[in-house]
Amino acid sequence: MNARCKLSLDKSTCIGWVLLSFLLFGPRPTLAQEAAESNAELLQLVVQLLNDPDKDMRAVGLEQVRTELKGEAATKQLLALLPQLNPNAQASLIGALGERGDATAKPQLLRLVQDEASSESLRAAALEAVAALGNEGDVELLIGLLGNKSEVLRRAAQTASVKLPGNGTSQALADKLGAGP
Questions:
Q1: Closest by alpha carbon to 92, among 133, 134, 49, 145?
Q2: Distance, CA of 152 to CA of 60 (rounded, Å)
Q3: Taking the CB of residue 122, how many other CB atoms lie within 10 A of it?
Q4: Per-residue pLDDT of the chain (181 residues; tens, 9 = 90+)
Q5: Global pTM?
Q6: CA 160: distance to chain centroid?
Q7: Please, are residues 178 and 144 in contact by the beta-carbon 8 Å criterion?
Q8: Whole-angstrom distance, CA of residue 152 vs CA of residue 125
Q9: Sign of the alpha-carbon dihedral angle for 99, 105, 111, 117
């Protein structure tokens, strides 16, 4: 108990000091809580920026996605935002997710690539993002899309096959292409 409380006979003064001490020195949010709150505020701002009709404002939002919003939780939140965005903003966000390099996005992006109900442009953006996050294990997907009836997806598969990282990627592509269908 506070030293002043011991000296005082007035209980209300003592309670006041305890409350003031708690307010001043009481529990503080952890760094993780502060980061989550900061990400939540930034996420709201990013949604507004991505839906802005001004392309420069959208570019600012995308840069925040690439550089400021960190971690698996932020990636999952960004993926959850896709349906709230217009198609151009969706494609741009998908590209930025690939550029951020967080593999958390890859499974959902793979589902989008394979979802024939989605637009070709979204599937192509997802394919290029998968390539940025992928490795030689994704060669089969790319080879399969090189023969797709959609020219947009074929071009995206060509672009993605060149960008696919990994030490064994070139060899895996050569093996698959050399083996034929």
A1: 49
A2: 27
A3: 17
A4: 555 545 445 555 656 555 555 556 666 555 455 455 666 788 888 888 888 888 899 999 999 999 888 889 889 989 998 998 888 889 999 999 999 989 999 999 999 999 999 999 999 999 999 989 888 788 888 888 888 899 999 999 888 888 877 777 677 777 767 765 5
A5: 0.71
A6: 19
A7: no
A8: 10
A9: negative
The C-alpha atoms of residue 123 and residue 145 are separated, in whole angstroms, by 11
Spatial separation of the C-alpha atoms in residues 158 and 155, rounded to whole Å: 5
Helices (H), 31-105: 31-50, 55-67, 71-81, 87-100
In sequence order, what DSSP letters do the residues of 122-160 get, joined into one string?
HHHHHHHHHHHH--GGGHHHHHHHHT-S-HHHHHHHHHH
- From the list 121, 119, 122, 132, the residue with the least C-alpha distance to 159 is 132
The size of the chain, in residues, is 181
